[in-house]
Fold this sequence. Notes:
By secondary structure, this protein is mainly α. The chain has helices at residues 3-15, 30-54, 61-87, 95-106, 113-125, 143-154, 166-169, 171-174, 177-184, 186-205, 208-234, 267-272, 288-299, 310-316; strands at residues 24-27, 92-93, 162-164, 302-303. The longest helix has 27 residues, at 61-87.
Amino acid sequence: MSTTVHDRQSRDHTRTEAAPQPMLAGEKSPAELFLVKLFAIVPALALAAAVPLAWGWGLGWTDVGLAVFFYTLTCLGVTIGFHRYFTHGAFTATRGLRIALAVTGSMALQGPIIGWVADHRRHHAYADREGDPHSPWLFGTSAGALAKGFWHAHMGWMFQREQTNAVRFAPDLLADPDIQRVNRWFPALTVVSLLAPAVAGGLITWSWWGALTAFFWAGLVRVAVLHHVTWSVNSICHMIGDRPFTARDKSANFWPLALLSMGESWHNSHHADPTCARHGVQRGQIDISARLIRIFEKLGWATKVRWPRPERLARKLNTTGSAS
Ligand SMILES: [Zn+2]
Ligand SMILES: [Zn+2]
């Protein structure tokens, strides 16, 4: 099956709501649920408890460089790969780029690719309504309900047992043997993602101590920071910020996260035009992911890129001028 067909399908499935397939399929096993909790919480604990401790005695420039490198690589794997390309079909990619994006996105440790894409397509199909896997608005609008909603949208939803039905939401990925393979490799890619910084740090400093500090900063802390930035798009960017475009949901543009999220926090613009390759569509809105897609396009690796169209944007502008 060609990439073009994949992408057309992925666009269709973002919108399809009346498909005969059920929305959910089975439940996570207790072992799977344990692993989700382990990988969501251990890096976060490392971040919270040890950053103040380690600062000053266990952080060198090698650690900083490796952390920035692995953060950038895996963040772009998620934003350009899992999100804009695999979920929304914002462009078509050569087979090499397609696999590279699947691998680097998997190394962000946000779950295997097929489940990630299925969950996110379901999020767009039901955004902020019953059926959305991670809306902060499911419990009401009182202060208590919103606190509960924030926790649910940020992390809590992952600890629920229900699983999105990939047969309904990601049939294009299920039909691709290469993607099936990357999906199965997720445990191995998790190990690679955590150990590669340690190996690099050890070789650069030629010491076990250098390997250990690189594992901590460019492995655990890097994973935790990217987790919380990605999860903030689901929580904060459906609660707080500007809404220059009309969307059917509560998505908002939250500028303070634009750099760290590599353009994903322009989330109101994204929900207004989900298949668009650029999320920061207004003047001055930095979108690093879109810049790299442009470079891929110039290299001939990305084609049929869906760049913003001014007339379409103008139609979607929120003329009531409401913010947050
Ligand atoms: Zn959203
Ligand atoms: Zn999306």
